[in-house]
Amino acid sequence: MKPVPHFPRPPLSLIVDDLPPFGVKLFVGDAEAAADKGLLEKNDIAIVVNCAVNLDINYASEAGVADQTPNGPFRNYKLGLIDDDGNPATMVLAGYYLLDGALRQRLPNRPTYPHRRKGNVLLHCRGGRSRSVILAALYLHIQMADRFPTLDSAIGHIRKARALHPDEWFETPKPMLIEAARFAARWIRRIEDEKEQSAHPAAASA
């Protein structure tokens, strides 16, 4: 097996500053960045998506209002990808809709939903070099297709923005995750076409 190279990179990297649908900033980072509440607050992070399985970060800060469970300082979502073979083919597809849902959710004005603001987004995994990179690339490719017309163009942009060294590109992101994202992109287009046809049945049948 080829040894895993280790190159220095920042814990947190700005990928785009106009992420749809609300024009917020998208960051990709590692577990160190995700666990640093001060760093997240400094960058106005409102949504954190943990892409890694078996990586749990305790954000609990104060008791919840209704059930006395602790609240974190932002909305926290978890996908749980393996950084290798073993993910079902649909998991990256699920990750796309998890991220899209996190951005588009309209939370009720109740004490049990304390974090409703539309701030910036952090995608992270353990090293911020594979799982979070592929989910960011897929989302950019679908949502910002004018700037990232191919998945490869989105990956290339993130590799540079994330300061990933060319010698590690063979696994940043892992090849099986890239193929899963290509599969996901095809299905997202089908799903979105079906949604459009359902919303405008007359135009679809014309």
Question: Keywords for this structure?
Answer:
7 strands; 206 residues; alpha/beta; 7 helices; single chain; Prot-tyrosine_phosphatase-like; two-stranded antiparallel ribbon; 5-stranded mixed sheet; Dual specificity protein phosphatase family protein
Walk me through the topology.
Blueprint (H helix, E strand, L loop, with lengths): L11 E8 L4 E6 L1 H5 L1 H6 L2 E8 L9 E2 L6 E2 L3 E7 L9 H14 L15 E5 L6 H13 L7 H11 L13 H25 L1 H5 L1
Parallel strand pairs: 2-7, 3-6, 3-7
Antiparallel strand pairs: 1-2, 4-5
In short:
By secondary structure, the protein is of the alpha/beta class. The chain has helices at 31-35, 37-42, 91-104, 131-143, 151-161, 175-199, 201-205, and strands at 12-19, 24-29, 45-52, 62-63, 70-71, 75-81, 120-124. It is globular.
